[in-house]
Amino acid sequence: MNIISALILTSHIIATTITTPNSDLTTITLITYPVPPLVNVSSHHSVNGYAVNLIRRLFEIAEINYKVVVFPPGRAMKTVLSSPLTCTFPIERSQQRETDFIWISPISISRYGLYSNKNKNYNIQTLEDAKGYRIASYIGSGISEYLSSMGHNIYLTPKLEMGLGMLAKNRVNFTAADISFSSTDNGLNMKENIQLELVFFTMIRSLACNKSLSKHLYQKLLRALDVLIKNDEFNQIMNNLNTDLDAK
User: Fold this and answer.
1) How does pLDDT run across 165-218, given as a tens digit for each residue?
2) Whole-angstrom Cα distance, residue 163 to residue 171?
3) What pTM, to 2 d.p., does this model score?
4) For residue 232, which of 50, 117, 157, 180 sits 20 to 30 Å off, Cα-Cα?
5) What kind of fold does domain 110-202 have according to CATH?
């Protein structure tokens, strides 16, 4: 049994293999993780969201079969590093990770901010002002790697919600998060306790694939993404995301 088969047995299989018209027999395993509203995972283990919509269209146009599983973000990256015919999304593309994967991007654009407890008054004007404070982020997050490289004190949690919970209980000073989370149910529910202190970074999110991905499949995915951009589907999906953020 290979590593993907073993991991799938202990993870939620979110979709059966999706067969596209005229596709070859190759199936790529897509590993994702909850990043609301880009990727939402329901209690019934189905996935949806803006990034999911884009990925589905990408593989339909490329005519490549795929199946989707959900892992924690750190585990998703480790699996793709070692397992052929696997990709993960929506992973942040960064200089530290550039040579580890084959990249198809952009899948989305994320803006990151520091959130604080509403009972505190830090008066943060720049990211440098947050030096010395404890900042929560989740394992596998590209923004945690960025902040660590800048000399910030990072406390890693298994998932974003745990960091936000620690923030509400004053166990950390800030939580670094994609500001799109504020449009989700969890984000709206936490508005009474937390506030956006500073927007400090914009990062591209991508589809990152194992480096053994064939040139043939890579080119098909690149061409499909080019179609999505040129026919304006990419912009329509991202505009829907931005409209929902503005409305909330």
Assistant:
1) 899 899 999 999 998 887 666 665 677 789 999 999 999 999 999 999 999 999
2) 9
3) 0.80
4) 180
5) D-Maltodextrin-Binding Protein; domain 2 (3.40.190)
